[in-house]
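Two proteins follow. First one:
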Amino acid sequence: MKRKLLYTLSGSLLCSLSALANGPKPPSELKDPVALVLLTVIIGLVLVIAILGNAVVGAMDLYRERMKKEAAKLPAILVLFTLSLAASLPASATSPAPEAAAYYTPLSQSSLYLLVSIVILEIGVIISLLFVLRFLAGIKRKSRHKAAQEADPAKPRISWLEKINKTRTLDATSETEEDMGHDFDGIHELNNPTPPWWKWGFVFSICFGVVYFWRTEISHSAPNQLQELAMAEEKAAIAKAEYLKNAANNIDENNVKMLEDADDLAAGGKIFVASCAPCHGPQGQGVVGPNLTDDYWLHGGKINEVFKTIKYGVPDKGMKAWQEDFSPKQLAQLASFVKSIHGSNPPNPKEPQGAKE
């Protein structure tokens, strides 16, 4: 029986090696990284198969002793072993490999499929050998906890959290042994070490701090926190200016607000003197147009109403629409300037016109 197993294993290994040797192997394809990785995996799996094959042959001696008592199981194991090998060989040799993505490398698709098929074949052989070895040795599944309980029933169960932290649940006897002798208000300090993940995290933070200090303060290859803050503030200022620039062009009579900034009022005053003074006077006292400094308004004195009047004009009274001449921001500055000169009482004001507000 040992010879039959050796012949079977040798045949499967020879098939694998012959398929690898007979496959297309242009010299240029050996330089491809995918080919090198697959060849390395194939060689490693061949070594694993050889080791497992030797272990199976050795397990036959143990199984031979069991056969004396259970002779009926011999045909079953032979059939099982043959079927497992037969199931692994055709599956990898005849079944089409899944269509791979386009590899832009010198490795051809036929060579890639051949190497992948050999890997699948070897994995199938390894699984079969493991299954047979487990059967021959009579290994039964048993959880670690159940095995530990059978070995020492009094030993407490260790949870996965305790395993990660390397902590222990102590009974009264072992707690006395781990007592550090520090007692405060009935609380005893035990010798419970710091978890490994915490210690390694602490070591990593120290290493990170050394590297960070070297880069930011000595080699200056990276910005420190103050420099990062300055760069972030500069970037935010640019983004804010861009936002305000875009937001200024979204002003209309529905969302316009009174501008109180001196620069905005000064800009509105320049526009007023250049474009509005011929009709309303340089100080808004009124010439052809109405007085803009008193309490009377022809078309409303609220900021949105003044903005709307400037934007669309009053064609039937000779006032043009200024929306084509100025941006929404400039119209808001002009309307805010008009509101700011209310009650200034310039000399020679024109008589009131419109309704009082």
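Second one, unrelated to the first:
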Amino acid sequence: MANKKFEVEVTEVRGYCACGYKQGDKFIFPGLGTPNQSFCGGAYMILFPMINALISGGRFNFEENPFSKTNLACPDNGYIVFKITRLDENLELYKDNK
């Protein structure tokens, strides 16, 4: 699990964000940990179950990339929308077999 990494991207901003997130912002999460920079705790609560699923071998087969989950809205009125993607060898294997 320690070698798993995740990229979290802000895909949409629908209103005010107290953290100042902007569309296109990206964060790297090491395994089950938080990124090396400040990150919103409320947003992390939405992302953590997806990280846990992906780190445990789960897939989202209804997504274009089953190692990614889109449309994760922040709990603060859904103003910020995230996409999380698992970054490791499985993603490359998926692309090769698609």
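SUMMARY FIELD: The radius of gyration is 13 Å. Residues 5-97 form one domain.
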